[in-house]
């Protein structure tokens, strides 16, 4: 232990001798310089401390700025989404406006068409006003007849969508295909078609009161503004040219009679509707093959010619003075004045 202590002390002495030998006056500095260096060092430390404080402050500012930037970025993103949504809405509105403009243009064209139609109707009305009263009355009667037939047709189409029924080209008759109501060669109504004829009877009972006289007459200016009177409501039977001429005449008459009987069976009051001469308007006729509406040389033509027509004949006054008497009779003012 003593040897180790002595050895350690020897080493320390050697080191002291070495450092003493290395010491030199040239390695020392004057105090003033030392103090100045120390002052600069302290100033540098303080500057470093200040700069570190500035850096810390700037780093805090940077964090705040980054937070604000993130907030602004989110606001920008929200605004961009709102702009995109607004642009979508605007695009939809632009499309809607374009569609509305198209619709407005269409309506404008329709208005122009209606204006032209009104102008045409005014011209026609002016012509009617200048027309001789008898001609105007006859023209109005023809309009009423067409309206009656079209009303009947439309109502039957509602009740029987598959029924082949048309208004004649002369607009004076409602036309049923013969094979639609009767079997070929038969004058007996098909059981499944009887309802059609009964419906016709019901509809006639609703329409005729406005255009006829008698105890069931119910004329009003609204239902018959032209004061038209039905002269005859004729049930006509027709055949094609196949077979014997006389037999066809009888067949067509029998078909008309069968239709007439079915109508009266459903609405017996129809015989009480009277014309201007106080005669029943309901009548029957059979024409056989004498009045074809199509060429009998084709099957289609023959099918069309085998038919039953419901023909309406309007009363035709012989002179204008009679028109006022018709109005009086329809109103029920002076039925006794009617001449037979």
From TrEMBL:
InterPro entries: Bact_OuterMem_StrucFunc, OmpA-like, OmpA-like_sf. Keywords: Coiled coil, Membrane. Residues 62-131 form a coiled coil. Residues 169-316 form the OmpA-like domain. This is OmpA family protein. It comes from Rhizobium mayense.
């Amino acid at each position: 232990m003593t040897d180790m202590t002595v050895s350690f002390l020897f080493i320390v002495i050697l080191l002291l001798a070495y450092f003493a030998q290395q010491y030199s006056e040239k390695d020392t500095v004057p105090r003033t310089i030392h103090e100045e260096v120390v002052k600069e060092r302290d100033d540098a430390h303080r500057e470093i401390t200040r700069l570190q404080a500035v850096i810390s402050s700037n780093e805090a500012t940077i964090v705040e700025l980054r937070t604000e930037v993130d907030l602004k970025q989110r606001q920008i993103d929200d605004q961009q989404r709102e702009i995109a949504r607004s642009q979508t809405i605007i695009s939809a509105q632009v499309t809607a406006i374009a569609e509305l403009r198209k619709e407005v243009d269409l309506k404008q064209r329709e208005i122009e068409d209606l204006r032209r139609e009104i102008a045409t109707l005014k011209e026609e009305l002016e012509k009617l006003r200048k027309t001789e009263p008898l001609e105007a009355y006859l023209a109005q009667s023809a309009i009423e007849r067409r309206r009656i037939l079209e009303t009947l047709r439309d109502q039957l189409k509602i009740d029987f969508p598959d029924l082949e029924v048309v208004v004649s080209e002369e607009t004076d008759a409602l036309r049923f295909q013969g094979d639609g109501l009767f079997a070929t060669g038969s004058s007996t109504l098909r059981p499944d078609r009887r309802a059609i004829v009964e419906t016709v009877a019901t509809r006639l009972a609703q329409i005729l009161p406005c255009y006829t006289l008698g105890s069931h007459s119910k004329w009003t200016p609204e239902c018959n503004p032209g004061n038209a009177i039905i002269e005859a409501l004729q049930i006509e039977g027709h055949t094609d040219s196949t077979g014997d001429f006389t037999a066809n005449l009888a067949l067509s008459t029998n078909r008309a009679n069968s239709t007439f009987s079915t109508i009266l069976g459903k609405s017996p009051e129809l015989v009480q509707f009277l014309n201007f001469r106080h005669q029943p308007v309901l009548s029957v006729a059979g024409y056989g093959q004498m009045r074809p509406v199509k060429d009998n040389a084709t099957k289609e033509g023959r099918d069309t010619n085998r038919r039953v027509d419901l023909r309406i004949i309007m009363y035709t006054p012989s002179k204008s003075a009679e028109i006022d008497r018709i109005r009086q009779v329809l109103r029920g003012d002076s039925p006794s004045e009617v001449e037979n």
